[in-house]
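Project outcomes to date are best conveyed with an example. Our students and postdoctoral researchers have been running inverse folding experiments weekly, and each run begins with a structure described purely in tokens. The record below, which covers 233 residues, was selected by the lab manager from last quarter's runs and is presented without edits.
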């Protein structure tokens, strides 16, 4: 795992060194901070990925298999919604995006509002994905109407939120969501009679990437209506 992380970070380090020698000319204190950050990132990634292999994925798969064997399938949907919400709240990339959005917007879009919007969107998506596994609904039957709806909402939402919405889809499907939720979905498909883990267990991340887009666009519509009311008032 250490070797894999080193292979991933080494090109970034080489690029930084080249730019530092040719263009940046950063002072010594800044270089030390950058190298310290890379070292922390190296250690953090190695520990995280090791934890994923040892704990997250086996736990998610085992939990999914047990849920798939339950008689009352609606419990799977509720558990999926809960885990989707919690995983998004814990997603580091989501917090970084929310911080940047609040900073650039001057506090117009608070971090907490964005966090809950994305988390609720992903929670709904994971619950919908669990229903898809239970009832065998084809993935395209959900994705195509979802993206058509996103295109419609783009015309209605505030322009401020459109770019943020499409970035949110990628950010919400970060390492926390992907590692645990994918393993959970594969486990549910494996434990559910008549379902193929390869065909039914995947596709969840596509839904998890779509839901934040829709959620943020809806938030943009709410903000646009609020601004219109303030102007008229």
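After processing, the design step wrote out the following sequence:
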């Amino acid at each position: 795992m250490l070797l894999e992380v080193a292979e991933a970070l080494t090109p970034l380090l080489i690029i930084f060194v080249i730019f530092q020698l040719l263009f940046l000319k950063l002072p010594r204190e800044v270089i030390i901070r950058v190298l310290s950050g890379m070292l922390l990132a190296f250690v953090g990634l190695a520990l995280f990925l090791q934890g994923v292999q040892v704990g997250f994925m086996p736990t998610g798969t085992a939990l999914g298999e047990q849920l798939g064997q339950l008689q009352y399938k609606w419990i799977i949907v509720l558990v999926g919604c809960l885990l989707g919400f919690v995983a998004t709240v814990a997603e580091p990339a989501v917090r970084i995006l929310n911080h940047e959005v609040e900073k650039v917007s001057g506090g117009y879009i608070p971090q907490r509002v964005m966090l809950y919007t994305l988390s609720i969107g992903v929670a709904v998506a994971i619950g919908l994905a669990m229903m898809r596994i239970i009832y065998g609904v084809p993935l395209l039957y959900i994705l195509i109407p979802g993206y058509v709806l996103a295109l419609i909402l783009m015309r209605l939402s505030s322009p401020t939120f459109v770019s943020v919405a499409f970035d949110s889809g990628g950010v919400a499907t970060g390492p926390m969501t992907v590692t645990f939720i994918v393993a959970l979905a594969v486990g549910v498909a494996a434990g559910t009679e008549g379902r193929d883990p390869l065909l039914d267990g995947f596709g969840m991340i596509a839904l998890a990437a779509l839901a934040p887009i829709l959620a943020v666009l809806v938030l943009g519509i709410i903000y646009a209506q609020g601004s219109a009311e303030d102007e008229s008032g």
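The two ends are 60 Å apart (CA to CA). The chain has a mean pLDDT of 88. The training component of this project remains on track.
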